[in-house]
Amino acid sequence: MNILLFYKDSFCRWMEPHKRASSGSSRTSNGLTLYWGILQVPSRMRFLNWCLWPLMLPSGTQSLPHDWPERRSTLHVSLLSGMIGCITEDEAKDVHKSLKIAAGVFKTLKETHIPRLITPAEKGRDLEPRVIDTYIVQSQAEAQEVTIARAIELKHNASLIAALSFETANFYQKADHTLNTLDPECSSKWKKYLQLKQHFYMAYAHCYHGQTILAGDKCGEAIRSLQEAEKFYSRAEALCKEYRQIKGPGSTAKPSEQLFFKKLGTFIKNTLEKCQRENSFIYFHKVPAEAPALELKASYGLAEPTAFELPPLSAQCTPEVYASFDLTKGPKEDKAKAKHDEEIKPVKEPDLKPQKDTGCAVS
After folding, report:
1. CB within 10 Å: which end of the chain, N or C, has fewer?
2. Which range is least confidently modeled, 7-21, 199-213, 299-313, 317-331?
3. Residue 159 burial by CB count (10 A; 0-12/13-18/19+): exposed, middle or buried?
4. What is the DSSP secondary structure assignment for residue 255, as one 8-state letter?
């Protein structure tokens, strides 16, 4: 059984499934390569070691064989993304990269590893298709959030920012709709978070679309687009309050307290006032009753899941090696069993007296 303990230890020491861009060297150990070699082929040894983790939606835990990748990318992202507001460029790149890797891991799990499990995924649990689909879409949406923040910081074209924001809002809406058929007791808090993010990025899309329209000397339509942005932003603020009050599994984020969120409200207000001033002095355009339709498609900056691949099979993992394992032959039972019924006699301890005063006292 020592070889199995070695494999298990190698799995625990696995830090990340991909090469680090900074070092260019793989962090995957030789032991882990052997471990994956055993688990990637039909083998009874796949089910010897089981992993345990707390569930995201219902209370309790989930246990499964160690024959699938761990969710390290999302954990790594949660640590870094909590520093939004004081995050450096390198950290932003790390978050962006990790989110795309996370989406790829979830996608690989769904398509390759979950169907191989000996017990089917329970409804509403982490491995249920609707939950996995939501993980994939949300990871992509959050990766695009990093792209949008970068585009705003570098003052990219307003049309590009509007298109990216619109695509991101659609991702959040898709994730929200994916959870519609789950038990509200488990998913309502998660859905509320997805809804507030959708409204927030719809506000961004209408705001920057209004700037694009204004650049084309259509001030009336620009005003209407910014009014729509104001409406979506107000709804996002209301959803933030509802989200903080709703009970459900998981920690509670505070997006309305982030600088990124607060700055948008001020930006919408200032841009709308500017358009109204320009319209009253120069354009004199009529403000339409309907907001301009957002028919935006981003050509750049869309986040796609990074393809995830397990390490290649070790040369030592041959059919002969697999055939040599016989799980029916376990360790022999020790015949010299302890007699549990035998009375245990107390052992008298010597009365130790201090030889000299150490200055220590027990009060």
Report:
1. C
2. 7-21
3. middle
4. G
> How do residues 309-362 score in pLDDT, each as one tens digit?
877 777 777 778 777 777 666 555 555 555 555 566 776 666 655 555 544 444
CA distances from 219 to 121, 268, 289 (A): 54, 15, 14
Q: Choose among 29, 141, 146, 32: nearest CA to 94.
A: 146
E runs forming strands in the chain: 50-54, 61-65
Q: What whole-number distance in Å separates Cα of residue 35 and Cα of residue 317?
A: 9
User: How far apart, in whole angstroms, are the C-alpha atoms of residue 10 and residue 31?
Assistant: 5
Reported for 4-12, long-range contacts at CB under 8 A and 24+ positions apart, including other chains, are 4/45, 4/48, 4/49, 6/31, 7/31, 7/34, 7/35, 7/38, 7/49, 8/35, 8/49, 8/66, 10/34, 10/35, 11/35, 11/49, 11/66
228-259 burial, b at 16+ Cβ within 10 Å, e below that, comes to bbbbbbebbbebbeebeeeebbeeebebbeee
120-151 per-position pLDDT tens digit:
777 777 888 899 999 999 999 999 999 999 99
Model confidence over 157-193: pLDDT tens digits?
999 999 999 999 999 999 999 999 888 888 899 999 9
pLDDT-derived band at 66, boundaries 50, 70, 90? very low
Give residue 77's pLDDT: 47
CA distance 3 to 316: 13
Phi, psi of 41 (to 5 degrees): -115, 160
Residue position matching structure tokens 């983790």 = 53
Contacts of 222 (CB under 8 A, 6+ apart): 210, 211, 213, 214, 275
CB 301 within 8 A of CB 160: yes
- Orientation of helix 129-153 relative to helix 72-81, angle to 10°: 40
CA distance linking residue 93 with residue 306, whole number of Å: 14
